[in-house]
Design brief:
This protein is mostly helical. It has one domain. It has 22 helices and no strands. Helix 15 packs across helix 16. It is globular and about 65 Å long.
Length: about 525
């Protein structure tokens, strides 16, 4: 099972990596054009983008699939192709019906939603009105993403991960094209262009999933919605699962509202969010996507030993990649932000005739502080995806929901109470603490139920992986103190320094893992689909 997980993870991670590279380009481009602090367009756009982007992460990457996949697999394994397809068509009918109405409501009452999303904007009418307009342009993306989530759930259930993992690439490409076409216009016009790019990206993503479903024999027909027993079961299973898988997104929503009270804070947090979402997507979300179908099938076949083994390997892989990523974000956060959003963005924007990035060094420092604090929570974000999958595979969505509600309340209390003293950095601090609290509850409950039983390999390797990451992080932090000298060596380009430190840090971490016994070369062979040599 470990080999299958690694192979599937490699496929999904590679496609997500490509998408995230384009996502970086998108983020750098938009930030370089519309700026951050002092730009009402930047805060308005990123606040408006929060809403559809949050639903994308929930519906295309988490909560919906957590409820849908076990039921769809139950139909496919127990009743065959036709029954599974009929179930999916019943779900599609209700998604179209509900989300069309929801989109209409949000677009009509957009000012009320902006007030809920960013209460602080009421003090700035221009920013408030821009956010309303941007939401109205982008919100139909929600309905599109819900259908993408359904198509992705079907394909992931069939262990065909490529189309769903590649679909987000379309969003990034559409937004990049839209912004490049209007990069030299007034920033308000660029904000409109980026918003329409989101809408176009949703259409492109849906087209990719429809094509993938057609190739797999699951091209769905649109039916009138009917309340069937299976749809009722999905609703009963889905609503607590939606809450259970949404804690991080709801915490982000709360953070956005609180940060709206400080000019530039939403842009800083959004840019930091984009950076830590790269390792989260490649590690946590990828593991969740790959583990869910595997563990669900093992549970339905009555093979609890295989399901537990898959959970152990998932936790091991999460630690293997998440802890060093967190160490790097903590060790060089300001360098990362300055190199990407200021230095590299300035060079890239010269292609379209702009002299420099609108994202200043002050913005880089503010974003870097948030990124460092999010880094402390990154392992928890990744472990949550793995641990929650163990519950969802057993159609238990209520237990994660309870813990998510605790995390949401804790995050809100900490964010609100700390904001007057710590400003915008209260948000990442509260998010990290709430996430670690939720992960602790999930692990404890899985242990009590006998589902989580760390084997000798996990017990042996976990502390060695953590030690390797700590040593690597300390080495990077030490070298970063000589950033000025390094920048001179690399022709004055901070982004070249970042590339050098990333490669050197990865090599050091890999060497330490092998030396200390946190990983073996045979793991690499397994990941590549070859027979292990030892």
């Amino acid at each position: 099972m470990a080999r299958g997980i690694m192979k599937s993870m490699a496929t999904v991670s590679g496609l997500i990596m490509l998408s995230r590279v384009f996502g970086f380009a998108r983020q750098i481009l938009i930030s370089g054009v519309i700026g951050a602090s002092g730009s009402p367009v930047a805060d308005a756009f990123w606040a408006a983008f929060r809403l559809p982007n949050m639903f994308r992460r929930l519906l295309a990457e988490g909560a919906f699939q957590a409820a849908f996949i076990p039921l769809f697999q139950g139909h496919h394994v127990g009743s065959g192709h036709d029954e599974a397809k009929r179930f999916a068509e019943d779900v599609l009918a209700w998604l179209v019906f509900i989300l069309t109405g929801l989109s209409a409501i949000v677009m009509i009452f957009a000012p009320a939603f902006v007030f809920l999303l960013a209460t602080g904007f009421k003090e700035d009418p221009e920013k408030f009105d821009l956010t309303v307009t941007f939401i109205r342009i982008m919100f139909p993306y929600l309905a599109l993403m819900s259908l993408v989530g359904l198509g992705g759930g079907i394909l992931n259930s069939l262990h065909k991960f490529a189309a769903a993992a590649a679909a987000p690439l379309a969003l990034n490409v559409c937004m990049i094209i839209a912004v490049l076409l209007y990069a030299n216009e007034d920033v308000v016009i660029t904000g409109y262009a980026a918003s329409w790019g989101v809408f176009a990206g949703g259409i492109a993503q849906l087209a990719i999933l429809i094509f993938g479903a057609w190739r797999s024999g699951f091209l769905l027909r649109l039916r009138l919605p009917k309340v069937t027993l299976h749809v009722k079961r999905l609703i009963m299973l889905g609503w607590p699962g939606f809450i259970g898988a949404s804690a991080l997104q709801v915490n982000t929503f709360i953070g956005t509202n609180i940060a709206s009270r400080e000019a530039g804070a939403i842009s800083w947090l959004m840019n930091a969010d984009q950076l830590y979402q790269l390792p989260l997507a490649m590690i946590g979300i990828t593991l969740g996507i790959v583990l869910m179908p595997s563990m669900s099938r093992a549970v339905k076949e009555g093979n609890e030993d295989r399901a537990r083994a898959g959970l152990n390997r998932g936790l091991e892989l999460a630690l293997l990649f998440a802890v060093p990523a967190a160490a790097a974000l903590i060790a060089m956060p300001i360098l990362i932000c300055a190199a990407l959003y200021t230095d590299f963005a300035g060079d890239a924007l010269k292609i379209v005739g702009r002299d420099e990035s609108a994202f200043t060094l002050a913005d880089a420092r503010a974003t870097g502080m948030a990124l460092m604090l999010f880094g402390f929570g990154l392992p928890a974000f990744c472990l949550h995806k793995v641990l929650a999958s163990a519950f969802f595979a057993r159609e238990n969505t209520k237990t994660p929901m309870k813990f998510s509600l605790i995390a949401i309340v804790l995050n809100a209390v900490l964010s609100i109470s700390l904001f007057p003293y710590l400003s915008y950095i209260a948000v990442p601090i509260a998010t990290a603490i709430a996430s670690w609290t939720e992960v602790s509850f999930l692990a404890r409950q899985l242990g009590k139920e006998g589902i989580l039983k760390p084997d000798k390999r996990l017990k042996s390797r976990a502390p060695r992986l953590v030690l390797s990451a700590l040593l690597m992080g300390f080495a990077i932090y030490t070298v970063v103190q000589f950033q000025a000298e390094l920048t001179q060596i690399f022709l004055g380009q901070m982004w070249l320094v970042l590339i050098f430190l990333t490669i050197a840090g990865a090599a050091l971490y890999g060497g330490l893992c092998l030396l200390l016994g946190g990983a073996r070369l045979s793991d690499v062979s397994t990941a590549l689909g070859k027979s292990p040599s030892s």
